[in-house]
Amino acid sequence: MSKLRIEAVEKVFTGARRKGETRALEPVSVDVADNDFITILGPSGCGKSTLLRIVAGLEQPSAGRVLLDGTPVRGPGADRGMVFQSYTLFPWLTVAENIGFGLRERGIAPGGRAPVVQGFIDQVGLKGFENHYPKMLSGGMQQRTAIARALANDPKILLLDEPFGALDNQTRALMQEMLLAIWQEHRKTVLFVTHDIEEAIFVASRVLVMSARPGRIKADIPVDLPYPRHYTLKTDPAFSALKARLTEEIRTEALRALEISG
């Protein structure tokens, strides 16, 4: 059985501010295996984030359904950990308190939270910053805290919506390697939305390419490159060939999006 099953999910937005209806997603169906690391690529406005929000339970599909371990997703839940591009830490809580927030909400006593929190602080490289507040941290450190917070709750699946999009290139590369190291240790199932083709290849076991709006899965491409991965992988001919293929796929859909909007 799939860890995550997206069955013919559609999304149509309506509202007073919209002229008629906006069809964001055509029927999308995807099966995600346990421990898969899947990235989702596509032109701007194709529905990548909408699809991720439906899996998270933050949006309801207009048709179709999402199943996690065979159970329908009907709203947000602790079985899904979400990390956004914008920094979403609680500004009044320290690094340690942010990471332990979900555990506290589940009623786990301080003595039970502390070793879990400290373990993730060590793993994401924030030792010594336990008592710092978000405003005292760089963007990369804030996202490390957000990822640790999501993982500390031991979700069945980790959902990331362009989590490194606002970071500089060097920090972004380090964060990619850090995320892969955590994924390999904890073996979580991951859905990762990104606009960056190199990033999509570097972290993923599969890349899903979405069409221009209304979004559908245009291609499902395995990434047959070994783990663990190091930044030097980006010079590998197989990496370059896959990048060229995906660049053409995205270019075609981006041009189609311009035609649609025009």
Description:
The chain has 262 residues and is of the alpha/beta class. The protein folds into two domains: 30-61 and 159-251, P-loop containing nucleotide triphosphate hydrolases (Rossmann fold, 3-Layer(aba) Sandwich); 80-154, no CATH class. It has eight helices and ten strands. The strands form two sheets. A six-stranded mixed β-sheet has the order 6-7-8-3-9-10, sandwiched between helices. The radius of gyration is 19 Å and the shape is globular. The mean pLDDT is 93.
Helix and strand arrangement:
Elements (H helix, E strand, L loop, with lengths): L3 E10 L8 E11 L4 E5 L6 H9 L6 E6 L2 E2 L7 E4 L11 H5 L1 H5 L4 H14 L15 H14 L4 E5 L7 H18 L2 E5 L3 H7 L2 E5 L6 E6 L14 H25 L1
Parallel strand pairs: 3-8, 3-9, 6-7, 7-8
Antiparallel strand pairs: 1-2, 1-4, 4-5, 9-10
Any key phrases for this structure?
single chain; 262 residues; alpha/beta; Rossmann fold; 6-stranded mixed β-sheet; 4-stranded antiparallel β-sheet; 8 helices; 10 strands; 37% helix
